[in-house]
Amino acid sequence: MSGLTAERAIPDRPGRAENYLTAETGLASWLLTTDHKRIGLLYMAAITVFFFLGGAAAFLLRLELFTPEGDLLSADSYNRAFTFHGVVMVWFFLIPSIPNILGNFMLPLMIGAKDLAFPRLNLISWYIFVAAGLIAVYTLVSGGVDTGWTFYTPLTTAFSNGNVLAAAAAVFVAGFSTIATAVNFIATVHLLRAPGLTWFRLPLFVWAIYATSIVMVLATPVLAMVLLLISAERAFGIPIFDPLRGGDPILFQHLFWFYSHPAVYIMILPSFGVISEVVTCYARRRVFGYSFMVYALLWIALVGFLVWGHHMFVSGQSLFANLVFSFLSFVVAVPSAIKVFNWTATLYRGQIVFDAPMIYALGFIGLFTIGGLTGLFLASVPVDIHVTDTYFVVAHFHYIMVGGAVSALYGGLSYWWPKITGRMYPEAWARFAAVMMFFGFGFTFFPMFIMGFLGMPRRYHVYPQEFQVWHVLASGGALILAVAYLLPMGYLAWSLIWGRRAIANPWGATGLEWQTSSPPPTENFDTPPVVVQGPYNYHPEHEGPPAMDREPHSPQGGQPV
């Protein structure tokens, strides 16, 4: 099976006796490594810890909302719990997850490079990320923050009794890691592509990481500046946002959302890349409209900077500004729709294999489509005014940021797990977890659309009796969703010891990462690859589906970990 291939593909045989997992052993060799693959796994370990912490806070919120009375958490404790949940899940899970785990590991492999452009900077960025996470955890153990993850003034500058400065410092420090990683990715794509790998031969995952990195570099400094302004006003009394002393509280919203709406695309653009890789592999067809998919990624990255005002329709901004931001919010939906249509067209008449990565991908498409369509409601000024600060908004952004991004993360991990570890996982359990995640997410968050439209405000731990049935349904769905999130961690860990050895290309996929051994050697390739044709060179009309890695095979089918 050829596609984005080297001039001479490496057969399905054992790689070198030494790979990146066995090259050096010992904790010090991992903590001081500059190998992008090991650093990707270090990010996986750290981000998984933060995912558990943020998820535990969310589960606590759902337990509280099981009954209308505030019988588990006080109002103040509830505020601190959802603030911690938001801060950790946004800046320490959703934003770094796919870029820092899958991007770190796969990007050099997918472009035929030995490593990222700046290996030491890559390791430093991990240490910065961990340091920022520890500061965030400190805010929890020292009492928490009660402002919400958006840090709105004047709560953060005058009224909050929480550890606002520590929380702001955690996010501020994490921004350095984000920018360092993004600069590294941009330089790598520009400078280290294999011979013959022109821009329009790049896999869509590489394009997605590249577009995301541009957004990271341009948007993150704005967040850093606004956090510094909050800290300056809170710590030193400088009147920046205080209207009684000549400040402007709405200025904070403009600055914050100028970063935070592009941040949504930092979370979702890498997911687009993952889904594109998975769909084309398991449909055995070229990606429909490859160039349109590339331009759609870049269009989202650009126009995403122009729609921040749709978060502020009720802030008192002018009707003309509301009209402009509403129009641009509809415009930015067009490239997202292009991607959904192109994935659907890729699936059409494909020889679809319903393995776990494909089920995750199909779940992503469904959840992202619901999230995108409900986003059009919020882009309409009258509807947005009606549902502002209700559970409708909570449901919408969770469908995009959690349902979409987490489905793509699990789908990408399932897809590249044999390449990362050299081991196969139990496919039946993986399919079960993928289906459970889709339905668990629907049971958890779809009732929130109904609650929000009926007027249930978000961030309330006490609510009217008539909303209890919807909250009970959502809390039950959260339990299913928690199992669906935990289950893959169990069977993937099981596979590290008892999983069958993986051949170099167990899925019959195209791409340079599949032309080296599983797991890859320390320097990724035995010989430098030379690309001779474009990506996704599948021909289902002339070929049958590939022989996938289903049955046990001889030890020559892969190398031991």
UniProtKB/TrEMBL annotation:
The entry's keywords? Electron transport, Heme, Iron, Membrane, Metal-binding, Respiratory chain, Transmembrane, Transmembrane helix, Transport
Q: How does it sit in the membrane?
A: Multi-pass membrane protein
Record's subcellular location: Membrane
Cross-referenced InterPro entries: Cyt_c_oxase-like_su1_dom, Cyt_c_oxase-like_su1_sf, Cyt_C_Oxase_1, Cyt_c_Oxase_su1_BS
Q: Where is the composition biased (Basic and acidic residues)?
A: 539-553
Region annotation (Disordered) ranges: 515-561
Which residue ranges does UniProt annotate as crossing the membrane?
41-61, 81-102, 123-145, 165-192, 204-230, 250-275, 287-307, 319-338, 359-379, 391-417, 429-450, 470-494
Question: Has UniProt tagged this entry with the keyword DNA-binding?
Answer: no
* Domain Cytochrome oxidase subunit I profile: residue ranges: 30-532
Please indicate if the UniProt record lists Glycoprotein as a keyword: no
Q: Which family does it belong to?
A: Belongs to the heme-copper respiratory oxidase family.
Name of the protein described by the UniProt record: Cbb3-type cytochrome c oxidase subunit I
User: In which organism is this protein found?
Assistant: Belnapia mucosa
